[in-house]
Design goal:
The complex is a heterodimer. Chain A contains 4 helices and no strands. Chain A has helices at 3-11, 32-46, 52-57, 61-70. Chain B is of the alpha/beta class. Chain B has a single domain (7-201, 238-244), classed as Rossmann fold (3-Layer(aba) Sandwich). Chain B has helices at 16-27, 39-49, 63-75, 108-136, 157-177, 195-200, 203-212, 221-233; strands at 7-11, 31-36, 53-57, 82-85, 141-145, 183-189, 241-244. Chain B has a 7-stranded parallel β-sheet with strand order 3-2-1-4-5-6-7, sandwiched between helices. In chain B, helix 1 (16-27) links the parallel strand 1 and strand 2. In chain B, helix 3 packs parallel to helix 4 (108-136) and helix 4 (108-136) packs parallel to helix 5 (157-177). Classes of the chains: A mainly alpha, B alpha/beta.
Chain lengths: 75, 250
């Protein structure tokens, strides 16, 4: 599943609104719990284990894409 | 026990769900006393309801304050048939907030505040009221407001633990004091549409939760009153934790 679709599902957003520049502050449904759900979805879908720092620093769609790229994943 | 005309002690009746219960109990002709922490709400209740309502200010999370509040009511001759342990707070906080900068683990102050308000208070009030019921050999009823969060709810460590404690006390007291004719039960609401629910949960959390409820909506406070009336009036109900949650706990 595409990164955009994962964000859209986890945060209950239209996929058309998801872009790399979309940040935590702009998503009302992004809180500490949904953040954990997002990390779980990313790790399941891309079969990757993100580091604690990567999880804490992930605050936008672009951050997620860069974190995955750091693990050799093109999302 | 017929609810109409019963003598009821309600904790935390100033706002939210408790206020709805208060108004409905008054409408049913109950002789009602309220223990409420907020002095301004106490004044407002006295102004609104006058002599129909005995209002006593007390911080029920503090044993001495709870004892003093109950003693004052008993000294005025109030002898409850039904205790409704409603006072409490809702608090949401993750065990570890991965988005926080700096300290990111659940605060100790908030843990202790929730346990005191939601669990200690039930113990403090019930021990005194049940002692009075036993002295009078009143076959009274104690109904505590629990929550479906008692089964575990992400982001609510303290609240869930406190409400699980309320359920355990309900079961314990039903077994311990049932032989003397006292009944104990709890009501476990799901997400009821009150100001405290909306202030305790983020828009994100409310959206997620409503999607999980089979009935796809928050509950009405009246559904909790109907559960209270059912427990009060059915004299073979004891030890029960009655879920009022639109099917959320399924």
């Amino acid at each position: 599943m595409s990164l955009e679709k994962i964000f859209a599902e986890v945060f209950n957003l239209p996929a058309s609104e998801v872009s790399d520049s979309l940040q935590l502050e702009a998503i009302a449904t992004w809180d500490s719990l949904s953040h954990m759900m997002l990390i779980g979805r990313l790790e399941d879908d891309y079969q990757v284990q993100l580091s604690g720092d990567e999880i804490a620093d992930l605050r936008s769609v672009g951050d997620a894409r860069r974190a995955l790229q750091a693990h050799g994943i093109s999302a | 026990m017929k609810l109409d005309g019963a003598r009821v002690l309600l904790t935390g009746g100033g706002r939210g769900l408790g206020r709805h219960l208060l108004e409905r109990l008054v409408a049913h002709g109950c002789e009602l006393a309220v223990l409420e922490r907020d002095e301004s709400l106490c004044d407002e209740l006295r102004c609104t309801h006058g002599a129909r309502l005995q209002v006593q200010a007390a911080d029920l999370s503090d044993a001495e304050s709870a004892d003093a509040g109950i003693a004052a009511l008993l000294a005025q001759g109030f002898a409850p048939d039904l205790l409704v342990n409603n006072a409490g707070i809702i608090h949401s906080e993750p065990l570890v907030n991965m988005l926080a900068r700096g300290e990111r683990t659940h605060g100790l102050d908030s843990w202790r505040r929730v346990m005191a308000a939601d669990l200690d208070s039930v113990f403090f009030v019930t021990r005194r009221v049940v002692d009075d019921m036993l002295r009078r050999r009143c076959k009274g009823v104690v109904v505590s407001i629990s929550s479906i969060a008692a089964a575990g709810n992400a982001g609510q460590s303290a609240y869930a633990a406190a409400k699980a404690g309320v359920n355990a006390l309900t079961h314990t007291w039903a077994k311990e004091l049932g032989p003397l004719g006292l009944r104990f039960a709890a009501i476990a609401p799901g997400f009821i549409d009150t100001p405290s629910t909306r202030s305790a949960l983020s828009e994100a959390a409310l959206t997620r939760l409503q999607q999980q409820v089979p009935l796809r909506r928050l509950g009405d406070p009246e559904s909790v009153f109907l559960a209270l009336r059912y427990i009060a009036e059915n004299d073979y109900v004891s030890g029960t934790v009655l879920e009022v949650d639109g099917g959320l706990s399924l």
